[in-house]
Design goal:
Layout (H helix, E strand, L loop, with lengths): L7 E2 L3 H15 L3 E5 L2 E3 L4 H8 L3 E2 L1 E4 L3 H11 L4
């Protein structure tokens, strides 16, 4: 049986907020994995993130396209 290591949960919310515009500009329409402030992409992104940072649980998220963000704002805040 493999030995379990205690993974560290890193709060990436602040990091994503600070870098959101850059993320949308570069990765729009893709799914990304973030671990320790580093972005991983591709089919094996989670595995790459876990290999590089084994004690951190990675965060996975779809990156919206700019037009999707604009449409979302219009739907939530319709003109009066």
């Amino acid at each position: 049986m493999a030995k379990r290591t205690k993974a560290k949960i890193v709060d990436t919310d602040v990091w994503i907020t600070l870098h959101f515009q850059k993320i949308v500009n570069k990765y729009a329409g893709q799914r990304i994995v973030i671990s320790n402030g580093e972005i991983f992409t591709g089919e094996n992104a989670v595995e790459k993130a876990k290999k590089k940072y084994p004690n951190i649980i990675p965060t996975s998220m779809p990156v919206p396209r700019p037009e999707e963000l604009f449409m979302h704002v219009l739907i939530i805040c319709p003109a009066q």
